[in-house]
Design goal:
Residues 1-58 form the HTH lysR-type domain. Belongs to the LysR transcriptional regulatory family. The chain has 293 residues and is α/β, with parallel strands linked by helices. It has helices at residues 3-15, 18-25, 29-43, 59-82, 98-103, 105-115, 167-171, 203-206, 218-226, 270-292, and strands spanning 48-51, 54-57, 90-96, 119-125, 139-142, 151-166, 187-190, 213-215, 231-235, 245-248, 254-264. α1 (3-15) packs across α2 and α6 packs across α10 (270-292). It is globular.
Length: 293
């Protein structure tokens, strides 16, 4: 397979959009479409499902993704070796929702900092949208990809969420065999008028009622569930930190969302670009690892 075509594949897979990938790759969308078609012919498989919402990976696309990312990593390692393996120096601020900021980014940031002692990383954990135009952060992790502004957006990874509760809460309340059985149970969730991203409005999707215990923070919601406060939606990558919780309706309620990494086009210098690459690699690896624990 042609490496240039795999670069196009990665660009479209991460952004979920031909137009957004074209901006990042500095190619026109028609060229990208032809390159994707050429790659699909070479692979003998359809790699993307096209819909009005954008481009989504097929099963074959998901199988190809880690191999393409491996080739990308080897190419970057070669570039670093030719450049003398120069360590990164400077400071980069990363804004992120508190769930990923508390349970994924610390490990990723610690490894990056360990490899680059001259690099400083700030993690700003706030449940809101960051204004990159006003330099509130150099890089921002978002759920829904921003649509406006001079921004560069790449998809980081999909992540999964489950309905969960303490075992002793479940033992003390009526059994839950279907979604209808959620009625009457105390629900933990976001404060409805403080949901800053429509993709975080989970409860309507699972047929649950307005939360009886609510917070604008995913980490506080996890604390409420760990305290036996009720039933709520939890990121799967947070569950290893809460062994007292168990999934509820695991065969029926399993949500999927995606994280995106965004930066302003005026902050596209080599330091931020390299940190973005390292961050993306680390987040993908750690989310996949934590979700399987």
């Amino acid at each position: 397979m042609d490496w240039d075509d795999l670069r196009v594949f990665l660009g479209v897979a991460r952004s979920g959009s031909l137009a957004e990938a074209a901006k990042g790759l500095r190619l026109d969308p028609a060229t990208l479409s032809r390159r994707i078609a050429r790659l699909e012919r070479a692979a003998g498989a359809t790699l993307f499902l096209k819909s009005p919402r954008g481009y989504a990976l097929t099963e074959a696309g998901h199988r190809l993704l880690p191999h393409a990312e491996g080739m990308e990593a080897r190419a970057r390692a070669g570039e670093a070796a030719l450049a003398g393996g120069e360590a990164l120096r400077g400071r980069v601020r990363i804004g992120a929702p508190d769930g990923i900021a508390n349970y994924v980014l610390p490990g990723v940031a610690a490894r990056i900092a360990g490899a680059h002692p001259g690099l400083g990383l700030d993690i700003v954990a706030l449940p809101r949208v960051f204004d990159l135009g006003r330099r509130e952060a150099d890089l921002a992790v978002t759920v829904s990809p921003p649509k406006a502004g001079r921004l560069m957006v790449r998809k980081l990874c999909d992540y999964r969420l489950s309905l969960a509760a303490r075992r002793d809460y479940l033992d003390a309340h009526p059994p839950i065999r279907t979604r209808d059985d959620l009625r009457g149970h105390r629900i933990v969730g976001y404060i409805p008028d403080m949901i800053f991203d429509a993709d975080l409005d989970y409860l309507g999707e699972v047929g649950a009622e307005t939360p009886g215990l609510a917070s604008n923070s995913a980490s506080v919601q996890l604390g409420l569930l760990r305290a036996g406060g009720g039933i709520g939606i939890v990121h799967d990558f947070m569950l290893p930190a809460a062994p007292e919780l168990t999934r509820v309706l695991p065969d029926d309620v399993r949500l999927t969302r995606a994280y995106h990494l965004t930066r302003h086009r005026d902050a596209a210098g080599p330091l931020v670009t390299r940190v973005a690459d390292l961050l993306a690699e680390g987040v993908r690896a750690d989310v996949a690892r934590l979700e399987t624990e």
